[in-house]
Amino acid sequence: MLTSCALIKRDGYARDYEECSSIEKCAEVIKAIIEHSWYIPDSYTDGLMVKLRVKLSSNKTVTSISILESSGNREFDMSAVEAVKNLHTIVELNGLDDEIFEQNFRQFVFAFKP
Asked: For 28-43, what is each residue's pLDDT tens digit?
């Protein structure tokens, strides 16, 4: 059974989130947090995209970030990596059942494309 993600106020973050009621909602929460901390570099040109593999520990801390598909623009790629690093721990996932977390969020791919 899927339990809710914890409702957390992040310091310096202007938006509060409703509790997650599905895997999709938790994914939306992660996406919004990452996008909030992502700065698009001046060197950005239309059509760039980078895909990252993100791995989390059992306490929802980011342990690994690797580039699966580079955009070809190092500054753009590194800005995406930094945005994920800024997550530190994704406490919003603390309410998830351990099995749901393991199957869906222990590692995930995130595509950055403005």
From this structure: 888 888 888 888 888 8
